[in-house]
Amino acid sequence: QLVESGGGLVQPGGSLTLSCTMSGIRLDNYAIGWFRQAPGQEREAVSCIRSSGDGTNYVDSVQGRFTTSRDNAKNTAYLQMNSLKPEDSGVYYCAARYKFCVPIAVNFDDWGQGTQVTVSS
């Protein structure tokens, strides 16, 4: 089970850190993907971190602004979002799959409940 936290309302240029905590099983062997979905749009892959700790971003517009990380001792992965823009708004989901990252939602087995991120002045 994945539990997310950290969403909220932030002004443009602000920062948020999303957390994704896995319960019932160790995080060590799992990749954590981050997806977002804006109203009326499809869910898109934003970022992912492999079980090895290597992270990648899938959306050009978040390069240099979003960073994913993990703390296996806390069974938690993070998405640090800086210099937020209104177009970053949406429901953010974390999801888990074994070891490796792919930017395809259906390839992830377990999902968090989602957390709303709203970037607005």
Give the key terms.
121 residues; globular; 49% strand; 4-stranded antiparallel sheet
Describe the structure in your own words.
The protein is an all-beta fold. The chain has no helices and 11 strands. Strands 2, 4, 5, 6, 9, 10 and 11 form a 7-stranded mixed sheet that branches. The chain is globular. It starts with a strand and ends with a strand. The model has no long low-confidence stretch (mean pLDDT 96).
SSE arrangement:
Elements: E1 2-5, E2 8-10, E3 16-22, E4 30-37, E5 44-49, E6 55-57, E7 66-71, E8 76-81, E9 90-98, E10 110-111, E11 115-119
Parallel strand pairs: 2-11
Antiparallel strand pairs: 1-3, 3-8, 4-5, 4-9, 5-6, 7-8, 9-10, 9-11
Helical region count?
Answer: 0
In whole angstroms, the N-to-C terminal distance is 34 Å
Mean pLDDT across residues: 96
β content, as a range?
A: over 45%
**What is the multimeric organization of the chains shown?**
single chain
H/E element sequence: EEEEEEEEEEE
Total beta-strand segments: 11
Radius of gyration: 13 Å
Structural class: mainly beta
Q: Which word captures the global form?
A: globular
Uncertain segments are none
Largest sheet: 7 strands, mixed
Q: Helicity, in percent?
A: under 10%
Tell me briefly what this model is.
The protein is mainly beta and 121 residues long.
